[in-house]
Specification:
Elements: H1 38-47, H2 54-60, H3 71-80, E1 100-105, H4 113-125, E2 130-135, H5 141-153, H6 159-177, H7 180-207, H8 212-219, H9 221-236, E3 242-244, E4 252-254, E5 260-262, H10 264-277, E6 282-286, E7 289-291, E8 297-299, H11 304-316, E9 320-325, E10 346-348, H12 349-357, H13 365-373, E11 378-382, E12 391-394, E13 413-426, H14 436-446, E14 453-456, E15 462-468, H15 472-482, H16 484-489, E16 494-507, H17 517-527, E17 532-537, E18 543-549, H18 553-565, E19 570-576, H19 580-600, E20 603-610, E21 614-617, H20 627-634, E22 636-637, H21 640-649, E23 655-660, H22 665-668, H23 671-676, E24 680-682, H24 687-690, H25 693-705, E25 710-711, H26 723-731, E26 736-742, H27 745-753, H28 760-769, H29 778-781, H30 784-796, E27 807-808, H31 822-828, H32 833-845, E28 848-857, E29 862-871, E30 883-890, E31 899-904, H33 908-925
Parallel strand pairs: 1-2, 1-9, 2-6, 3-6, 9-11, 10-12, 19-20, 19-23, 23-24, 24-25, 27-29
Antiparallel strand pairs: 4-5, 7-8, 11-12, 13-15, 13-16, 14-15, 16-18, 17-18, 20-21, 21-22, 26-28, 26-30, 28-29, 30-31
The protein binds NADPH dihydro-nicotinamide-adenine-dinucleotide phosphate, ligand LTNE7NMQ and sodium ion.
């Protein structure tokens, strides 16, 4: 028959006896008779489907279409008719419990034939003993179906073409996935359904109106088709399965608030009956659709398929309900607003509830209720990322005392609601007057406004509450009118409206019973300079709500989220000078960042890199695997102030460090300001610590007063622990007598390799290429670099030297002191090779070597740098490569047995390593685990 629909069974054969087991097609082999009744059948037989009974017309809001096929009326009456249940059917025991797993696949999961195949694979690979799979309509189909009704109601003929699109979409999908009898019977069913729908839409077109039942009937086809296709695909994979039209099973009662309440008892009875006829181990069930007790087709409204899955889970007492979607799980905050948002591994039912109220992408609260009753966990998983474990919503496991343990962190998630206004009703006449709150909220109710949050201080002088902005005008007017007398008499001082507000809520089941949580929350808001207009916390302890100015809302969300989710050793870094050393540091950070985060909870994020000409800034952290390309492609004009502000201006990362890898005095002159702003500073640049004494002392004094850190280990001996060794000696009460050593990696390398026939200038060039020299190698050869190191150690030891106090033997030939550039200097240097060669030969002739040393003489209160001759067996003569050697003579480490530190004292890797270890020192000062 033409109207043999997957929804409506074959038409009655003009008899009143159609009641059970009317198998209408290969697809709808289950009991389709729910929609037939004696009464309806009689109607049908008497009218021969041509005319609707007037009472039914008015009930369904549909008029007859004389030109349409009778099948329309059959379906309409099928839905309103009562059911006669066939009591003769032998009941098969319905197995319940752990053996069942329930899955729900939303529209995007079954959006294409490839995805349907993918879903079928997931079903087949689930090794649960029994599976019930709830499936939505293919993506966009529900909208397409609603659109059909919309167009038909508007008497827009294009509904016919739109229906053809629906047909085509499902026809093509079926052709791609099915073959043989399965394909043939699905297509035959599909064509029948479409022709029935055409007739029904025609009626709507004529009436210019569709009742809710008609709409629900039409849109429900999307689920019917996807369930049939999916069940055929699963069967094709060798798994025996049946599909279920859930209108035969899920019975719901409409509620006043455009929602429905499942009738679990009746639904369970229906399920048993259905199962006795279809004792399947794998069931593919339609999502979204259900029936009223009167067997009128209806839907489960918003997020209906999730609800279907939860109801089925509860009916089967399933082991688990898995909701498959296109996100990895429930986020701790809206990831579009908070880039740091993380997927929550667990949520309690109550937390999920709270989060969903605030619009988080969680389940609708009503979806949670059926499964919560039986403690059935709900798992939210991403069908496009099977490796993501998803979020489990369940009852928190109990500890040995039977108390609920907390799941993950105390605060789970943060959410916001925008477009609110606060209403503040204030006055001394409110205190101690019973009924004031009732009068206020009675007035609010009268204008139909929804109160989102209420707060009243115990002084009772004011009540404040939040309502949607669009409702506030009516609320204020109603209150003013209701309290006119009290306002005139001065018992109420005002009804104040504070527009442009947002709510920020923190959700976590154990939040309020854990001391200090709200303090942390408010502290984070205070630090971000955010004013709180109102606060509410219920005794349920699941949620703290604050009302803020709307423009502060995202900042507030980020601030509180980072307070609870970022480790306190999250550090925003700015790298100044990505040259040889800075660049190597960035590469080391790239290679090590994940390990640090994983093992030590140290989260280092490079928020900016600047050279002298260009800089790159990032809000999230620069991808260090591509920092060079990013710098080339996205570099903007360098601006140090903007740079520092950007790196430090992110209020949500608790710490900032600027790492100066230049040799620039100008950059060093900013340290004071940076430290003052709470920015930690780390550097291998010697300019600040060897610059004017006064500035140095000022800088160190500031550092000592603040809890802001300034580390500069790499300024002396690169990565060697020279500064830290000296500090260790001093801080433990040792007294420095003398520090003597080879402090220049460059000059060490030069004199270690200036042997045989080699020319001095050639070895200098080699040292430069090896990355040992200063950006300008004249700084090394002139002894200035060593003098700076001597100064740094002398000042660290408490001596007050200026650079000019250090006597220095320069190796730069007098005529080259004025050379215009480092390049020119290196070009001309060979002309002077003979002079230095002569010095070396003289030393050699005496069995000695040349070494360039620096000395801090704390006893004589002087420092100097000179080229000296050492016997070949002296420790200073035993070095190789760029080795530094530094001997500390102290009151504990006496004359003949100084404390010696030795090793490579220059080069990109060791220097960057020294800076990196300063960064980790900072992290450990900030509380990183050791
Ligand atoms: N080489 C070594 O073994 C050791 C070096 N050091 C110290 O490390 C520091 C860096 O040396 P190295 O990497 O070799 O030098 P490079 O010349 O290779 O790099 C210097 C970097 O600083 C940048 N720079 C210079 N001036 C400015 C400015 N005003 N603003 C922003 N960026 C600027 C340069 O950028 P741009 O190119 O855009 O101008 C360049 O990226 C020096 O202070 C050095 O003393 C310390 C211990 C050992
Ligand atoms: N140029 C310096 C580098 C380290 O400070 C050196 O050679 O030691
Ligand atoms: Na060092």
């Amino acid at each position: 028959m033409a109207f043999s629909s997957s929804f409506s069974p074959s038409p009655p054969s003009s008899s009143c006896s159609v009641s059970t087991n009317v198998a209408t097609s290969a697809h709808s082999s289950m009991n389709r008779n729910f929609f037939f009744s004696r009464r309806r059948s009689c109607f049908l037989s008497s009218s021969n489907l041509a005319v609707l009974h007037p009472s039914s017309i008015s009930r369904l809001g549909c008029v007859s279409d004389r030109g349409s096929k009778g099948s329309l009326h059959a379906r309409v009456f099928a839905s309103v008719a009562d059911v006669s249940v066939d009591k003769s059917i032998e009941t098969v025991h319905l197995p319940k419990g752990d053996m069942w797993s329930v899955h729900k696949f939303g529209g995007t999961c079954v959006g294409t034939s490839k995805r349907i195949q993918n879903v079928a694979d997931i079903i087949v690979n689930d090794d649960s003993e029994r599976k019930l799979v709830v499936v939505s309509a293919m993506s966009k189909v529900t909208d397409m179906m609603y659109n059909l009704i919309y167009k038909a109601q508007l008497r827009d003929d294009s509904y016919v073409a739109a229906l053809d699109d629906v047909l085509e979409k499902h026809r093509l999908t079926a052709i791609e996935l099915l073959d043989g009898n399965d394909l043939a019977s699905f297509l035959s069913q599909l064509h029948d359904d479409i022709s029935n729908l055409k007739a029904l839409l025609r009626a709507i077109y004529i009436a210019g109106h569709a009742t809710e039942s008609f709409s629900d009937f039409v849109v429900g086809h999307g689920e019917l088709w996807s369930a049939q296709i999916l069940s055929s695909v699963v069967r094709k994979l060798g798994v025996d399965c049946n599909w279920m039209d859930t209108r035969d099973v899920i019975i719901v009662n409409p509620t006043s608030a455009n929602q429905v309440d499942p009738d679990f008892l009746e639904s369970e009875r229906r399920l048993e009956e259905w199962f006795s006829k279809n004792p399947s181990k794998t069931i593919i069930a339609t999502g979204f659709i259900a029936s009223t007790p009167q067997k009128i087709p209806t839907t489960l409204k918003r997020d209906g398929s999730d609800f279907s899955a939860a109801i089925m889970g509860a009916l089967f007492r399933a082991r688990q309900v898995t909701i498959w979607t296109d996100v990895d799980g429930v986020y701790s905050a809206d990831p579009r607003k908070v880039s740091e948002a993380v997927i929550l591994s667990t949520l309690s039912y109550q937390e999920a509830w709270e989060m969903s109220y605030f619009g988080a992408n969680v389940l609708h609260p009503r979806t949670i209720i059926p499964v919560m009753r039986y403690n059935i966990p709900i798992v939210i998983r991403n069908i496009f990322n099977l490796s993501a474990p998803g979020t489990i919503i369940c009852r928190p496991p109990a500890d040995e005392n039977g108390d609920s343990q907390r799941l993950d962190s105390v605060v789970k998630g943060f959410a916001t609601i925008d477009n609110l206004a606060l209403v503040n009703v204030e006055g001394t006449g409110m205190a101690g007057v019973p009924g004031t709150a009732s009068a206020i909220f009675g007035a609010v109710k009268d204008v139909g406004a929804n109160v989102i949050m209420i707060s009243q201080a115990s002084s009772e002088h004011s009540v404040c509450f939040a309502v949607p902005e669009k409702e506030v005008k009516a609320v204020a007017e109603a209150l003013e009118s209701r309290f006119r007398q009290a306002l005139n008499a001065g018992r109420l001082s005002k009804v104040e409206v504070i527009p442009n507000c947002s709510i920020l809520a923190a959700v976590g089941q154990k939040m309020a019973s854990t001391p200090g949580v709200s303090a942390s929350l408010f502290n984070a808001l205070a630090k971000a300079n955010i004013n709180i207009r109102a606060i509410a916390q219920g005794c349920s302890e699941y949620n703290i709500t604050v009302v803020l100015k709307r423009e502060d809302c995202i900042r507030a969300l980020r601030a509180v989220h980072s307070r609870f989710y970022l480790s306190k050793t999250t550090i925003a870094m700015g790298i100044v000078g990505p040259g040889l050393i800075g660049g190597t540091l960035l590469d080391q950070l790239r290679d090590q960042a994940a390990v640090l985060k994983e093992e030590f909870n140290i989260d280092l994020r490079v928020m900016g890199i600047t050279g002298s000409k260009t800089m790159v800034l990032s809000d999230l952290g620069i991808d260090l695997s591509r920092w060079r390309e990013i710098q080339k492609e996205k570099g903007e004009e360098a601006n140090l102030e903007k740079f520092a502000q950007h790196v430090h201006g992110n209020h949500f990362i608790p710490n900032t460090v600027l790492v100066d890898c230049t040799a620039d005095e100008k950059i060093a002159s900013h340290y004071y300001d940076w430290l003052r702003k709470g920015i930690h500073v780390i550097t291998p640049n010697k300019k600040a610590n060897s610059g004017p004494l006064k500035q140095y002392l000022k800088l160190r004094a500031l550092q000592r007063q603040s809890y802001t850190h300034y580390f500069y280990e790499a300024t002396v001996g690169a990565g060697l622990p020279i500064v830290s060794t000296l500090r260790g000696l001093l801080e433990t009460g040792d007294k420095i007598l003398r520090i003597e050593g080879i402090f220049s990696g460059t000059l060490s390398y030069i004199f270690n390799n200036f042997i045989g026939q080699r020319a001095f200038s050639e070895v200098v060039t080699e040292a430069k290429h090896a990355g040992y020299t200063e950006p300008d190698p004249r700084d090394d050869l002139s002894g200035t670099d060593v003098a700076r190191k001597v100064i740094i150690l002398a000042r660290e030891s408490g001596l007050r030297f200026e650079l000019s106090d250090i006597r220095v033997d320069s190796l730069v030939p007098e005529p080259l002191k004025a050379s215009a550039s480092a390049e020119e200097f290196l070009e001309l240097l060979p002309q002077f090779d003979q002079d230095i060669a002569k010095k070396r030969q003289d030393a050699e002739a005496a069995g000695e070597v040349l070494r360039y040393v620096g000395v801090v003489d704390a006893i004589k209160n002087k420092g100097y740098v000179e080229l000296r001759r050492y016997k070949k067996d002296h420790p200073f003569a035993q070095l190789s490569g760029s080795d530094n050697i530094i001997a500390f003579t102290t009151t504990r480490y006496k004359e003949q047995q100084p404390l010696i530190v030795r090793g490579p004292g220059a080069g990109a890797e060791v220097t960057a390593g020294g800076i990196f270890s300063d960064i980790l020192r900072l992290a450990s000062y900030l509380g990183a685990p050791s």
